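User: Hi! I'm working on a homework problem where we have to compare a predicted structure to a textbook description. Could you give me the structure for the chain below?
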Amino acid sequence: MLPEPPHGKLLIFTAPSGAGKTTIVRHLLKKYGELAFSVSATTRPPRPGEEDGVDYHFLSRKEFARRVEAGAFVEYEEVYPGRFYGTLHSEVHRIWEAGRTVVFDIEVKGATTIKRQYPEDSLAVFVSPPTREVLFQRLRDRSTEDEESLRVRIERAGVELGYADSFDRILVNDDLPTALAEAELVTREFLAD
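Assistant: Happy to help. Predicted C-alpha cells:
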C-alpha cells in the first residue's frame, strides 16, 4: 500500500470565462511565495505563447481518456464540445509535497467538485463581473474566438453566473486594483488560518 501523500490547503478561484480570475491568480502567485499554481490538463490545442506543463498539460483526447480510466484526475469535465479540462492528482500532490498551498484557476463545475472533496482545507472564491453585459462584452473584446465558439462561451458564462452563491466568497471584479486588493486580503486570511 502506498503511503498517503502530504495534505495541505487549496485556494480555488473560479468564474465564468472573461471575469478576470486568471489575472487575479497571476497577481496572487507573484505576491505570495507560499502559493503554487495547479496546472490543469486539457485536450484543447495551445494558444500562441502557451507552454506545455506551464499553462496547461496539453493532452490528446486519447491520453486524457486513458488517464480518466486510470483515476488520475481529482476532477475533469467536457467544458466545451470535444474540449476536456481536468485537475491531475499528481499536480496537487506535487504542490503539497513542496509544502505550499495549491491555487486553482478553474471553471465552475470543477471548482464545486474540488470544494466537495476538500471542504475543510479549501477556500472557494467566485470572481464575478459587475454585470452579465460587462462579462459578455469582455468575451467579445478578447477576439480569441470565432463566432460559434464565442456564442457557446457566452451561453456557458450565463449559466455559470448562477453558481456564484455556491462558493465561500464572491469577489466582484468591477475595478481591477480594488479586486486585486480584495483578493490579497482573502488570501492572507486563508493562509493565516
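For your comparison, note the following. The chain has a mean pLDDT of 89. Residues 6 and 97 are 6 Å apart (CA to CA). Good luck with the assignment!
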